[in-house]
Amino acid sequence: MTHLTSSTADDRRPVPQPDEITRFYWDGAAAGRLLMQKCLSCGKLQFPPDVCCLSCQSEHFGHAEVSGRGSIYSYAVVERPLHAGFVDALPYVIALVELDEQSGLRLVANLLDATPGTRLSCGQPVEVVYEKREGITLPQFRLVEVSR
Ligand SMILES: [Zn+2]
Asked: Taking the model in full, what pTM does it have?
C-alpha cells in the first residue's frame, strides 16, 4: 500500500464530502483499503456507491475489498482547469479505471505518475495509491510497469 501526501496549506482543490452512502468508501481509503459496494442479492460489485443495485435494484449491500489492480479503460489529459484549485496541477491525467475484479466496474481517478510525455493507452495496467489531502484520503492510480 502506498500513501502519498500532496496537500499544502494553500491547496484550493475541492475534496469529496462523505455522506451516509459513501462514508465506507472514504473510511476504507483512509485505512489503505479499496472497498466497493457489494449487492447481497445478486453479488455484483458497484461503484459509485448508490442507494440501490444498478443490476437488480436491491437495497441490501455489504462491502467487499478489491485488489486495487485494474487497467485504463479511457483517459483524458487535462490542460485547461475546470476549477481554480487545479491550475498548479496542469497538465494532469484523469483515468477511467476498470478494476480487475469485475467487467464494467470502473472508477474515475487521477493517474498520478503520468508526466508530460508519458505514453498512455487503453488497457495499460494500473494500481491504486492513496493520496492524503485536506483530511480525506483519495484512491488514485499509477501505472504498473511489469506485465501481468
Ligand atoms: Zn444486485
From this structure: 0.89
